[in-house]
Amino acid sequence: MGDRVRDEVYNTLSNASYQPKMEKRLKIPLKDGEQVWKVIAKDKYIQHDDYTGFDATIYKKETKTKHGQEELIIAYRGTEPNRWYGNGRLRGKQMGIRRIMEQTNSWRSGQSQKVFQMELQDYFGKYTRKFNEMETISDNIKKAKHATENSLTLLLVSRGPKG
Description:
Blueprint: H1 7-17, E1 25-30, E2 33-39, E3 56-61, E4 72-76, H2 89-104, H3 112-159
């Protein structure tokens, strides 16, 4: 069994970091033996921060490499939209985001008609503004056309008939 860390180990440690109750010691079976990893540094380093949502687990391999080196893996947790962690300011912000999402996906919140009406009003407001802008542009084009015709007429009259 070589010293390199295999994909199966990364996968197992990553999945273990998502568990609410983590095993302190993980035995990972491999084709040619097993590797044992322990959770370390629980108190030395920040591994969870309620405010930022940062989450990580630090694992140390029980056996050293053939060169006497220790191996550490930091398994970072990804975003889990179906779970809300923490009890500080982040939790409040997360709950606010959740409420907004429920209102946006209003079929679940029972507010679908209200949200639909708001969306419709917004759409027609934008449509009306665009329509008014087009009318203004059309009026400006008509005025420019009329001014050009008048200027040409004055120019032709001032030169008089050629003959």
